[in-house]
Specification:
Radius of gyration: 20 Å
CATH topology: Inosine-uridine Nucleoside N-ribohydrolase, Chain A
Low-confidence stretches: 1-25
Helix content: 40-55%
CATH class: Alpha Beta
Mean pLDDT: 92
Largest sheet: 6 strands, parallel
Number of strands: 8
Strand order of the largest sheet: 3-2-1-4-5-6
């Protein structure tokens, strides 16, 4: 009988330990110390435009309004095609909390080096959601290592990627570098549902018009939808079929949801039910 008790205790203890580990894993981001960076390639898919609006919507929630964040536009890799200008939308969404790598990459790297070092020097970590490729991240990590070689970037900088295509059009050297010099996470693709992350690509979806109650966010989404439709498939840019069908694609936000422990959100409708009101 004593052996049975011991066995039950071991099973119970193991189960509790597993649950505790799972709960701790969901607490990846420390809102008191860490910095969340979302980097948008904006080339040539317009999904980044919707993703930026969704990012701002999430950060406007009382639960996440204290999150320290920064956005970067123009963090593209080696893909061909025209850029999708996001400046008006980014200015409206992020004000002084974004920088433009398309206009001046070296200046943007310097800016982000200084921003990230503020948190790293205070003991925080940096979490980068790659709404695009990793070439900019590679340059940023090199700049941090050059200025602060004592910082272990492989432990303190976390890069999250959800797209096979984004990896394929990152230069091979940059991809190898970030995988060796950051805590690199490849998560399930945010274009699909029920795969372990939210699915935020929904053709024909326009319920956001009634579900968003905040006037500023509603204005932001109207601008995002107009901008995406203006550039989608134009002049050889990628034709996003979900956007062409009058829907939304903010699939890159799946990375932010993973970082913040929100990967159980199912789809676009659940996102707006949760954060639109």
């Amino acid at each position: 009988m004593k052996q049975a008790y011991i066995f039950i205790f071991i099973v119970f203890s193991t189960s509790c330990y597993s649950w505790a580990n799972e709960q701790e894993e969901l607490k990846r981001f420390d809102a008191e110390k860490d910095l969340l960076v979302m980097q948008f390639d904006c080339k040539t898919d317009v999904d980044d435009i919707h993703s930026a609006a969704a990012f701002k919507t999430l950060l406007s929630s009382p639960d996440f309004s204290a999150v320290n964040y920064f956005a970067v536009a123009g963090t593209y890799g080696i893909q061909e095609g025209l850029y999708v200008p996001p400046n008006e939308l980014f200015q409206q969404a992020f004000e002084d909390k974004w920088t433009d790598a398309h206009a001046n990459k070296a200046k943007a790297v310097e800016k982000m080096k200084n921003v990230t070092l503020q948190y790293l020097h205070k003991g925080g970590n940096v979490w980068i959601a790659e709404a695009g490729q990793s070439d900019f991240s590679a340059e940023l990590i090199k700049a941090i290592q050059n200025d602060a070689p004592e910082i272990n970037t492989a432990e303190r900088i976390h890069i999250v990627q959800h797209s096979n295509w984004n990896e394929e059009v990152t230069s091979a050297n940059s991809l190898a570098f970030v995988k060796a010099n950051s805590n690199y996470h490849k998560i399930p693709d945010g274009n699909a549902e029920r795969n372990g992350t939210p699915g935020f690509r929904t053709p024909g979806y326009n319920d956001w018009k009634t579900k968003i109650k905040d006037a500023e966010l509603l204005s932001l989404w109207k601008l995002a939808v107009e901008t995406a439709l203006k550039y989608n498939g134009k002049d050889g840019r990628y034709n996003n079929e979900a956007v062409a069908a009058g829907g939304l694609d903010f699939s890159d936000l799946s990375e932010v949801c993973w970082i913040l422990g929100l990967q159980d959100i199912k789809d676009t409708d659940e996102f707006f039910n949760t954060f639109g009101r």
